[in-house]
Amino acid sequence: MSQSNISDMGEKERLGKLAEYNLTDRDIEEELNNLVTLASKICETPISLINVLGANTQFTKASVGWDITKISREESFCHHTIQDHDIMIVENAIEDERFTESPLVEGEPHIRFYAGVPLKTNEGHNIGAICVIDREERSLTSQQKESLKMISKEVVSRFELIKKNAQLKKADILLQNSSDIQAIIDPDSLKYLEVNNETLSLLSCSKSELDGKRFGERIVDEDLRDEVRTFLSEPKNVEGSFVVRFLSKEEEVVKLKLSFTFYQNRWYMTGRDISRRDKVLQELESEKLFSDNIINNLPGLFCLTDEDGILQRWNKNFKQLVGKSNSEIEDSALFDHFAEDDSELLEIAFKQVLATGEGEAEGNLKTKEQGLIPYALTSFQFTMDDRNYIACIGVDISDLRETQDKLRHTLTNMRIGQELADLGSWRWDLKNNSLLWSPKVYDIYDIDNVAQKPSVELFKERVHPEDISIIDDITNRIKSGEPFQDFEHRLLISDDKVRWVRHSGKIMYEDDGSISHVIGAVQDITSQVKAKQKLEKEKALSDKIINSLPISFFMFDQHGNAIRWNDYFRKATGFNDMQISYMDPLDYFPEKHKERVSQAIERVFEEGKASIQAEFLTSSGELVPYLYSASRFQGDQITYLIGTGQDISEIKEYQNELDQSLKEKEVLLTEIHHRVKNNLAIISGLLQLEAFSAENDHTKNILKNSQMRIQSMATIHEMLYEAENFNDLSFDSFVEQVTSSVREVYNTAGNNDISFDISIDAINLNINQAVPCGLIINELVTNAYKHAFPNHQDGRIEINGNKVGSSITFVIEDNGRGLPDDFSIDEQNSLGFSLVSSLIDQLGATLDIRRDDGAIFIFSFEQENVRGAGSSISGT
Questions:
Q1: Residue 101 · residue 93 · CB < 8 Å
Q2: Which Pfam families has this protein been placed in (predicted)?
């Protein structure tokens, strides 16, 4: 390669590098002014320049004492500077033969002295020079030379910065205008640092509102949200992708594919909405499965070839008969599977199909197990995606060749295959109001003469007179700029026969935004319309049956939306149809029944059926007792609840009579509780006398403990005696009496001052739970009073009782000396703690013991709803 070629290649690379900086047409004087000023002052020259050299021109990007913005490279001193890699100095331009005749030397600015340093990029390309100029002959000191070299490096650094800023700005513009989701995320806080407009739209916030937004807040699936956040928080992860369901600003769930890349301590996220893609794929998969089922269930053979006769698709019958695998059949010619003697006739028939669009032929198929089998083939041509295809349907005519009737029957069955192309296409040019359509449109519109040229007038001739207004309305909307909407209308065929068709289409636009044409498809939907009409009749019949029921009928979906109801239901509720359609199932019940009804509804969807009695709340506020039975019904994609409701007012009246009988028995039980209370009081008094007379402290303590336990049970029986029913004992008053008794029994002269803070919700218990609960509180309060405050220490005991739903929790807390670190109630030998453990089990409760500035005992249990006068303490 010659030296000239090498030089040309170097210059080409240099110009390419210069173009990357985009300096020639950019005003960057402000960024460089301080550098040329500095060079002028250091070198003590009146003129200083920063120049870049293009293919034929020198561009001055910053200057001191120089007004010329560009000159030709032939006149440029810097042109010679960039040929070298070091400083170039011309002390007297008149004596330098390169510049003696230069117009810049002979004329203004009368250059005599010049010193320039190449502006060298990191890759070694000299894209320009920084220079100082004087009108008098002179030289530079070594320090001035080094300073000028250093300034040249700073100029290149500024160029690099300008290029990077331009790249960043370009990237930011691309980021903001991208239709994809793009964001930068902080790996520590997972907060958004930067997002594009598409992401802001998805997050439903402005840039000013972005501060504090944490990634993942709108991901629907909580587990997946945690998984993605965990992935982003793990230092070892650098790349990953997830498919998430995201709640958009329209509160719609969209499916996003998010990809993450970790770079320079930042997560870079890109994403795309794939909801529509997945929906389209599902629809395509469903359509493919549907067509595959049709093809595979066709009687006889089916195969599809391209216009060269190469097989593209085939059904299972074809595969089984030829006895070959899919890979062996693929890309083979259809004629290769028939006898050689039939090849010529089949090729002629194939060409006829290509020429006319359809054709028929006979041939002997080569089968694996049965040899040659004669088949009658019916073929037709269609176009899809600008490619021509031939569909062939074959029927075994081995047994049908003997009679003409059987042959005719076979040929009729073969033509069924032509229905596979039951879709016509059309193109409407708005500018000249012309129409083009596919051959299938002639069939759908029952136009016998296929030679008739498609036109708007011919199209409207077949439209039912009552539906002409539909066509005119759609036409006017399209012309006014509205988007295309699918529409249906009737065709009036011969002998007043009506055919229904559906049109789908898309409007195509010119570059200037004007409408170019409309493309569409038309399909015969007569069978679907008739099926719909049949379904509507069947629904009307079922509605009549449902509305004739002498009980309420209702149907809700899994989201609580009312789907169907009968007249009895509407009359019983007093609400109209519009109100019912917006009401939730629980809206028909008073608050006291809503939880039970909600649980019953859950059982229906979980177990399949459920029954419940509840009072029904009518629109007038009347409560009517009803017996409801419901079961689960599974639709295509939604689960439904269907059920009936029966007014049981008369049954409830009979039940009230039974309740009255029970009340009489409860009176007897009240008297029994009164006698038990009196007997327990006598026993408590005897124990108190024994305790007073006992000299042994241990014995006295046992007697007092027994007295407190007896007194607690007596208090409960006293409450039972005074209660109107035995299932709703007010427990707050019981606790007050227990604490009062403890203080009375154990508070003797010289004892410490122990106060009680009691806070009990309105808690009502039946006797089955009241007795063990009361004894537990008695034991824990007594234990705290006796042991938590040694040496006459003052203290406080708090008793709190809370009820949330059916869950009840009691907390007994003191600020005494607390419990040992290794304390375990199961390892205590005292009767009190043994009794507490036993009662906790009997109550079906949980016990939690804590140590926090004293002792804390927390026990919780579920409230029972045992009704009737026979409620009693059950043994364990």
A1: no
A2: GAF, HATPase_c, HisKA_2, PAS_3, PAS_4, PAS_9
Specify the CATH number for the domain of residue 354.
Answer: 3.30.450.20
The CA distance from 450 to 804, in Å, is: 80
Q: Are residues 752 and 701 in the same domain?
A: yes
Where among 136, 170, 204 does a domain terminate? Answer: 170
Beta strands in 412-482 (DSSP E): 424-429, 434-437
At residue 176, the pLDDT reads 55
Is residue 144 in some structural domain? yes
Q: Is 869 domain-assigned?
A: no
Distance of CA 650 to the CA centre of its chain: 51
Q: How confident is the model at residue 171 (pLDDT cuts 50, 70, 90)?
A: low
Q: Is 91 helix (H, G, I), strand (E, B) or coil?
A: coil
Which residue, 774, 779, 798, is CA-closest to 854? 798
Task: Please write the tens of the pLDDT for every residue from 812-851.
Answer: 999 988 888 778 777 777 777 788 888 889 889 999 988 8
Q: Please, what sign has the CA dihedral across residues 70, 76, 77, 81?
A: positive
- Whether residues 734 and 674 share a domain: the answer is yes
How far is CA 398 from each of CA 411, 596, 655, rounded to the nearest angstrom?
Answer: 13, 71, 80
- Of all helices (H) and strands (E), which one includes residue 688? helix 649-693
Does 628 share its domain with 689? no
Which residue has tokens 């070091």? Answer: 86
- State the alpha helices, DSSP H only, in 297-342: 316-322, 326-329
Distance, in Å, from the CA atom of 254 to the CA atom of 226, rounded to the nearest integer, reads 18
> Does residue 280 sit within a domain?
no
Q: Mind listing the pLDDT tens digit for each residue in 553-599? A: 888 998 989 988 988 888 988 999 899 989 999 999 999 989 999 99
The arrangement of strands across the sheet holding 424-429 comes to 434-437, 424-429, 515-524, 497-509, 487-493
pLDDT > 90? residue 129? yes
Residues 683, 758 share a domain: yes
Pairing of strands 639-647, 795-804: unpaired
Distance CA 556, CA 103 (A): 96
* Structural domains in the chain (count): 6
Residue 483, preceding peptide bond in cis (omega within 30° of 0)? no
Are 45 and 160 part of one and the same domain?
A: yes
**In which domain, by residue range, is 266 found?**
178-273
Comparing C-alpha atoms, which of 189, 198, 193, 185 is closest to residue 262? 185
